[in-house]
Amino acid sequence: MNIGKYVELYSEDLKLKNYSENTISNYCNQVKLFLNHFNNVATKPSEISEKQIKEWLLLANSINGRKHRISAVKLFYKYTGKQPLKFKHIEYPRSEKKLPEIIEKEFLLNAISKIENTKHKAIISLAYSTGMRVSEVCNLKIADIDSKRMIITIRQSKGRKDRIVGLSEKILEILRIYFTEYKPKEYLFNGQYDLKYSSTSCNQIVKKYLGKEYHFHLLRHSNATALLEAGTDLRIIQKHLGHANCKTTEIYTHVSTNFLSKMALPI
User: Taking Cα atoms as reference points, which of 131, 145, 129 lies closest to residue 189?
Assistant: First the structure.
């Protein structure tokens, strides 16, 4: 099977549909894994049966992983394989009802204050203050920071949507110190060998300064919970985080200890 050809065609199809670079990369990687898995038993994707597809999907380590596999391969058969009926009887699994994890505010602020590397401090501080996703931090350009209006424009994020988040005086001060020392070009955070800092590196610095049990996305969860506990309206938090559905934002009311402490228990 000419896997490279199929992946390239799929990438072109997703570009024509205006999917984000991050989605295209993730989906193509999944399809590459999928085709590699059946490389010895099929000469083309059409020869892979529905039963075999289901068996491959069940190899995912988590429900979210299985969902991701379904999304990627389903679109592959729809756009590139021209066989949308392959997934006629394959449905998304029921979601796991898990509450988001957060990092305690006091612990976070104390850990951030001790970071001596100005670049690492800027990345973690910015993410916690704004709730930006790791891809949004990596893709942030210098031109997207408006220090006069004290806002940051996040362009073409999840769902190909732009949004605006606030820029605090404290974060602006940290970014200015970082900028003076590192003098980045185009993107706010340059990598060692690339113009953009990588998501892998972002996760590594979170583990380095906050603990191995933490990952970058927890900064976003922690930001949302901190805003909620400070009395910010849920609709504002929804816009701030870029959630399409308010129910996604509402889940943070279940992890807020401040909210729980204010409940009037019956006995």
Answer: 145
Q: Which of the following is catalytic: 133, 196, 221, 240?
A: 133
Cα 112 to Cα 219: distance, rounded to the nearest angstrom = 12
Task: State the catalytic residue, choosing from 67, 105, 217, 239.
Answer: 217
Q: Which residue type sits at 61?
A: N
Active-site residue (options: 6, 10, 187, 252): 252
Prediction pTM value: 0.69
The active-site residue, picked from 68, 158, 163, 215, is: 158
158 has catalytic annotation: yes
Annotated catalytic residue 221: no
Q: Where are the beta strands (DSSP E) in 80-191?
A: 145-146, 151-154, 163-166
What is the Cα–Cα distance from 163 to 151, expressed in whole angstroms? 10
Structure confidence at residue 20 as a pLDDT band (50, 70, 90): confident
Q: What percent of the chain has pLDDT over 70?
A: 93
pLDDT band at 266 (very low <50, low <70, confident <90, very high): low
pLDDT of residue 207: 96
215 is a catalytic site residue: no
Q: How many CA atoms lie within 13 A of 21 on its CB side?
A: 6
How long, in residues, is the chain? 267
68 carries an active-site annotation: no
* The predicted structure's pLDDT at residue 264: 52
Task: Give the chain's radius of gyration (CA, Å).
Answer: 21
